[in-house]
Design a protein that fits this description.
The complex is a heterodimer. Chain A folds into four domains: about 200 residues, 2-Layer Sandwich (Nucleotidyltransferase, domain 5); about 80 residues, 2-Layer Sandwich (Nucleotidyltransferase, domain 5); about 60 residues, no CATH class; about 100 residues, General secretion pathway protein M, EpsM (Gyrase A, domain 2, 2-Layer Sandwich), CATH 3.30.1360.100. Chain A has a five-stranded mixed β-sheet, with helices on both faces. Chain A has a five-stranded mixed β-sheet with strand order 11-10-9-12-13, with helices on both faces. Chain A has a four-stranded antiparallel β-sheet with strand order 14-15-17-16, covered by helices on one side. In chain A, helix 5 crosses helix 8 and helix 6 packs across helix 7. Chain A is α+β, with helices and mostly antiparallel strands. Helices cover about 40% and strands about 25% of the residues of chain A. Chain B is an alpha+beta fold. Chain B has two domains: about 70 residues; about 100 residues, Ribosomal protein S6/Translation elongation factor EF1B (Alpha-Beta Plaits), CATH 3.30.70.60. In chain B, strands 1-2-4-3 form a four-stranded antiparallel β-sheet. In chain B, strand 3 and strand 4 form a beta hairpin. The radius of gyration of chain B is 38 Å and the shape is rod-shaped. The chains are: A alpha+beta, B alpha+beta. At the A-B interface, helix 9, helix 10 and strand 14 of A face helix 1, helix 3 and strand 3 of B. Strand 14 of chain A pairs antiparallel with strand 3 of chain B.
C-alpha cells in the first residue's frame, strides 16, 4: 500500500548516446538521438516519453516518481573555490559571487551544485560543478512529462560511491563508445574531470591527466578496446564490477546507493532554493529518513491533539473538584455574612421616613407670621398639622405650595376657623406623602446657598455678645 | 488426545481472533464510554467554575455596597449585640439630645413586635430650640444603631415661645432577624 502511494525512486544515467533507467523491479536502456546543437531531437523526445511512461506504469492520479538523474561530464566544469569564513545563511550568496568570478557564465545561466572539500573552519574550500542551464532543462522537460520528479547530479559523483574506498587518491575512468570520462578523486572528493576520446592513446591520456596511482575502470567498452590491459601494465588498475542487465551501470548503482544509504550528492540546480518551496510529491516518500521523522512528529502531534483533552479531564478533574468545593465553601461563608448585612442595611435605608423633608417643605411653604401649634407624622406618611395663620389667603397659599412641591399625594384642610375677632385663622390640616417611587425624582432639601446662610447665622448666634457687637 | 486437523486448527484460530476482536471492541467501547463520561463531568465542572467566577464578581459588588452603606449609616451590624443594643441606643439618643441642646423628658422603652423584626420601641420626649430638635432628628439614624423613627410629634411650648416640644417613637430593629430570613425575590 505504501508503494502504491509512494512509488520507489528510479535512478537514471544520461549519457551522450543513451539513457539508462534502473528501478527496483528492473531496468531500461534507451538510445538518444541528438541534433547538431546537442539537444534531443523531437522524435527522440517522443519515444523517450512514451517508453518511460510504459516502463513506470504510473497512473495520472498517482504521485510523480522521484528520479535521481546522473548526467555525463560533457559540458560540465569542476572548480575548487576557496571561501572566506561566513555564516551558514550567507554561504550561498558568497558562493554565487565566487561562481560569477570563476565561471564564464553567471550563476543564473548555470545549473550548479557544490560540496565542501575541506574541514578547516578558517579556510573553507568547496568543489563546484556547473553546467549550462539549458542542458538540464532539456532533460528535465522530457523526463517531467514522463511523470518524474527530478533531481540532477553528476554520474561521476555517483560512480565514486561504488568504489572500494582506498585512502589513496584514485581515478575513475568511465568508457563509452566514443568518449571516456576521467575523474580524479582526492580525500573522497572529485577534484578534476576530463573528457577523453576513446582511441589507442587513451591509456596515455589517462595517465597524463591523473596523478593518481590507482584507477578504476567502468563502462561497457572497457573490455573491448584493451585499455584495461594497457593501464594494468603501468599502474594499479581495477575494474568496477557492475551486474549485467538493462539499466545497470556504475552510475545508476551509485545513485541507488546514495538513496538507500542516505549519502548526499551535490545536486545541480538551475535556480537558487526559494524560501517558499512548492509542494512536491517527494515529500510523501516516507522511505526517506527526513520525511519519516516529520511524519512521526505529525503523528505525535495528532495523537496529542486527540488525547490531551481527555487526559486533561482525567488528570485535572479531581484537582478541579477539590478547588471548586473549597471555593464554594468560602463563597458560602462570605454569603452568610454579607447577604444578611446587605439585606438589613437595604431595609434600614428603605424604612427611613423622610421626616426632615416634610418639615423643610412646611417651613418653606408657610408665610411669615404663621404659628405652628403641633405637627404629627408617622412612618406610614400620615401627617397632621395644626397652625394659626394671619388670614384665609395664607392658608390657601400654604396649601398650594405644598401641592406644588409634588411631595404629597393629598392635602386636606380639615378645619379652618377665624379667631381673635377675625384677626387670625386657626387651621387643622392633614396630608399623606407619596410612595417612595413617586418621591424619588424630587429634589428636596436646602440648596447649598441656604445651608451656607444658615451656618453663618448659627455662628453669629453662637459667638459671645462682645464679639457680636464688634462685628456690627 | 488426538491431534487437531488443519481445518480444526484454522477454526480455533479464527474463533480466537473473533473473540479477541469482540473483547477489544467491547473493552474499547467501555473504556471510551468511561473516558467520555469523565470528560463530560469535567466540562460541566469547568462551566460551573466559570459561573462561580461571574458570581464572585457580583459578590465583590455586594461587598462594596455593604461597605458604602455601613459608612453612610455609621453602622457595623457585625459589632452589634442583641443583648445590649437597646440600652446602648437609648443612652446614645439621650447623649445626642443633651449634647445637641435638647432637654430630655420622659423616656419609655417597650418590647418590639417580633413579627415586624423589632427589638424594642423607645418613646422619647424632650424640648429645645427648633434648630436643636431638627438636628437631633437628623442625627438619630446616624448614631450607629439600627434606629427607625416610627412617628414624631412637634408641639409649641406655650411657656417658652423660643422652644418646641418633641415626642418621638423610635424602633430599634432586630438585625439578627435578617440572618435567618431568605433573600427577597426580585
Amino acid at each position: 500500500m505504501r508503494e502504491f502511494f509512494n512509488p520507489p525512486p528510479v535512478f537514471i544515467e544520461i549519457n551522450p548516446a543513451s539513457l539508462r533507467v534502473l528501478r527496483e523491479s528492473g531496468g531500461l536502456e534507451l538510445p538518444l538521438q541528438r541534433a547538431a546543437d546537442g539537444k534531443l531531437t523531437a522524435a527522440c523526445r517522443k519515444e523517450l516519453i512514451s517508453a518511460l511512461q510504459n516502463f513506470l506504469g504510473r497512473k495520472n492520479w498517482q504521485p510523480r516518481v522521484r528520479a535521481i538523474c546522473g548526467i555525463s561530464a560533457h559540458g560540465v566544469s569542476l572548480r575548487t573555490i576557496a571561501l572566506p569564513a561566513v555564516a551558514g545563511g550567507e554561504l550561498e550568496s558568497v558562493l554565487r559571487l565566487q561562481i560569477e568570478k570563476e565561471f564564464p557564465l553567471s550563476p543564473d545561466e548555470l545549473a550548479w551544485g557544490w560540496r565542501e572539500c575541506s574541514n578547516d573552519p578558517a579556510r573553507r574550500e568547496v568543489i563546484v560543478a556547473a553546467v549550462r542551464k539549458e542542458v538540464i532543462e532539456d532533460y528535465a522537460a522530457v523526463l517531467s512529462e514522463a511523470g518524474l520528479n527530478l533531481e540532477f547530479t553528476l554520474s561521476a559523483f555517483a560512480r565514486e560511491l561504488i568504489c572500494p574506498s582506498p585512502n589513496e587518491p584514485h581515478a575513475i575512468l568511465e568508457m563509452g563508445r566514443n568518449h571516456a570520462e576521467l575523474v580524479s578523486i582526492e580525500n573522497g572528493v572529485a577534484t578534476s574531470l576530463k573528457i577523453l576520446p576513446v582511441n589507442e592513446n587513451l591509456a596515455d591520456a589517462a595517465l597524463k591527466n591523473s596523478p593518481a596511482k590507482i584507477i578504476f575502470v567502468s563502462g561497457d567498452a572497457a573490455a573491448q578496446s584493451g585499455v584495461l590491459e594497457k593501464l594494468s601494465a603501468r599502474m594499479d588498475c581495477r575494474r568496477l564490477e557492475v551486474p549485467a542487465g538493462d539499466g545497470f551501470s556504475a552510475a545508476t548503482i551509485g545513485l541507488k546507493k546514495s538513496v538507500s544509504e542516505n549519502i548526499p550528492l551535490p545536486r545541480l540546480q538551475s535556480k537558487p532554493q526559494s524560501s517558499k518551496t512548492p509542494f512536491s510529491f517527494s515529500w510523501t516518500d516516507f522511505t526517506r529518513g527526513e520525511n519519516r521523522r516529520w511524519l512521526t512528529r505529525a503523528a505525535v502531534l495528532l495523537v496529542l491533539l486527540l488525547v490531551l483533552p481527555y487526559a486533561e479531564a482525567l488528570l485535572l478533574k479531581p484537582l478541579l473538584g477539590l478547588k471548586l468545593a473549597s471555593f464554594k465553601k468560602q463563597r458560602q461563608q462570605f454569603a452568610s455574612v454579607v447577604e444578611p448585612e446587605l439585606r438589613f442595611l437595604q431595609s434600614l435605608k428603605q424604612t427611613q421616613p423622610p421626616y426632615l423633608d416634610v418639615i423643610y417643605l412646611f417651613s418653606q411653604s408657610a408665610a411669615p407670621g404663621s404659628h405652628l401649634d403641633s405637627l404629627t407624622i408617622n412612618q406610614h406618611g400620615d401627617i397632621a398639622i395644626k397652625a394659626a395663620m394671619q388670614n384665609a389667603q395664607q392658608v390657601t397659599d400654604f396649601r398650594a405650595k405644598l401641592i406644588a412641591s409634588g411631595f404629597f399625594a393629598n392635602i386636606t384642610v380639615e378645619e379652618q376657623t377665624p379667631i381673635q375677632n377675625q384677626q387670625r385663622v386657626s387651621v387643622r390640616m392633614s396630608a399623606q406623602w407619596k410612595p417612595s417611587a413617586g418621591r424619588a425624582a424630587l429634589k428636596i432639601g436646602p440648596s447649598p446657598e441656604e445651608i451656607g446662610k444658615a451656618n453663618s447665622k448659627t455662628n453669629a448666634a453662637a459667638a459671645p455678645p462682645a464679639e457680636r457687637n464688634t462685628k456690627s | 488426545m488426538r491431534a487437531l486437523s488443519p481445518s480444526e486448527k484454522r477454526t480455533i484460530r479464527y474463533a480466537t481472533i473473533g473473540i479477541l476482536i469482540y473483547l477489544a471492541l467491547f473493552g474499547g467501547f467501555k473504556l471510551w464510554k468511561f473516558i467520555a463520561h469523565r470528560r463530560a463531568d469535567y466540562l460541566h465542572m469547568v462551566a460551573e467554575a466559570r459561573q462561580l467566577k461571574i458570581e464572585t464578581g457580583l459578590d465583590a459588588d455586594k461587598a462594596i455596597v455593604v461597605k458604602k452603606m455601613m459608612t453612610e449609616f455609621q453602622l457595623d451590624p457585625a459589632r452589634l449585640s442583641t443583648n445590649s443594643v437597646v440600652a446602648d441606643a437609648s443612652a446614645a439618643i439621650q447623649k445626642a439630645a443633651t449634647s445637641g441642646g435638647v432637654k430630655p423628658g420622659a423616656i419609655r422603652e417597650s418590647p418590639g413586635r417580633a413579627s415586624a423584626k423589632e427589638l424594642a420601641t423607645i418613646d422619647f420626649e424632650g424640648s429645645g430650640p427648633v434648630a436643636a430638635v431638627i438636628s437631633l432628628l437628623h442625627r438619630l439614624p446616624l448614631l450607629g444603631y439600627p434606629l427607625v423613627i416610627d412617628s414624631l410629634q412637634i408641639t409649641a411650648d406655650a411657656a417658652r415661645p423660643d422652644q418646641i416640644k418633641l415626642s418621638v417613637k423610635i424602633i430599634v430593629l432586630n438585625f439578627e432577624s435578617w440572618k435567618t430570613t431568605e433573600a427577597p425575590h426580585a
